[in-house]
Design brief:
There is one protein chain. With 108 residues, the chain is of the alpha/beta class. The chain has one domain: Rossmann fold (3-Layer(aba) Sandwich), CATH 3.40.50. The protein is 44% helix and 16% strand. The protein has a three-stranded parallel sheet, sandwiched between helices. The radius of gyration is 15 Å and the shape is globular. The protein starts with 8 loop residues before the first strand and ends with a helix.
Amino acid sequence: MNGSSQPEAVVLYGRSSFDKTQALPAIAARLEPRPGEGAHVAVAFADLTGPSLPDVPDRLAGEGVTAATIVPCMIPADPSLSVWLAGALSLWSRRVADHRSNGRSSSA
């Protein structure tokens, strides 16, 4: 974690099939702060068009981001999303932790 209560990134998570009405990339661009002034804003999509979860968190981690908030932006809301999202992010987090610990042990 980054040691503060604020995330280093915010990921707007929606459906590309509704992107014409949601306009998530445009919203993300408007929310993107000036360098050093706030959290980076990225977009991920639930559909196969991408970028997807876990691709976006992987990219953010590669850029040094250590904390992110995922904001579901799907309309209509999917009732099972909160359960699925928690599980998917938990698996991603364990995979990243395993990768980091394997990288440390192989370089020691």
